[in-house]
Amino acid sequence: MKKDEILNRSRQEKRDEGMEYVKNNGLKIGFVAFSLVFIFIVIFNFFMGMQNHSVFALYWTFFAVAIIPKYQFTKNKAYLIAIIGGIVAATISLISFVITSVR
Questions:
Q1: What whole-number percentage of the chain has pLDDT above 70?
Q2: Which residues have CB under 8 Å from 84's CB, separation 6+?
Q3: DSSP 19-88
Q4: In which band, very low, low, confident or very high, does the pLDDT at 65 lie, cut at 50, 70 and 90?
Q5: CA–CA separation, 5 vs 99, rounded Å?
Q6: For a Cys-Cys bond, which of 2, 27, 93, 99 suits 57, CB 3.0-4.6 Å?
Q7: Of the candidates 38, 39, 33, 75, which has an alpha carbon nearest to the alpha carbon of residue 58?
Q8: For the chain, what is the domain count?
Q9: Which residue range is the domain that position 90 belongs to?
Q10: How far apart are CA 30 and CA 42, in angstroms?
Q11: 63: how many CB neighbours lie within 10 A of its CB?
């Protein structure tokens, strides 16, 4: 392929690598911020004597779902184990939240 042909194909894809970089960087920063808020809420609830089941359910759901595309792309079994573990933890946390809320 010639240089011009490659450039034309790249332009026709309508895929902006700069925007993809910004989006991915934003997701990373969002994940860190989400994790920091999660840690704060868990510690705060611990000292206040409150349950953290709902917060853990949200965190583990987010964790498991965020890894799915990585597994789909790499087929790495460690990602699959993390997904399954996250789903199990989210389910247990959600059930615990419902049980303690209904009492």
A1: 94
A2: 64
A3: HHHHHHHHHHHHHHHHHHHHHHHHHHHHHHT---HHHHHHHHHHHHHHHHHHHHHH--HHHHHHHHHHHH
A4: very high
A5: 62
A6: 93
A7: 38
A8: 2
A9: 51-103
A10: 18
A11: 20
Are 37 and 52 in contact by the 8 Å Cβ rule? The answer is no
What's the CA gap between 4 and 1, in Å, rounded?
8
Amino acid identity at 49: G
What the block records as the tokens of 29 is 């920063």
Confidence class for position 34, pLDDT limits 50, 70, 90 = very high
Regarding whether 98 and 58 lie in a shared domain, the answer is yes
Examine the domain organization and report whether 27 and 55 are in the same domain.
Answer: no
Residue written as token pair 């910004």: 22
pLDDT of residue 79: 95
Is the Cβ–Cβ distance between 57 and 48 less than 8 Å? no
Q: How many CB atoms lie within 10 A of CB 53?
A: 19
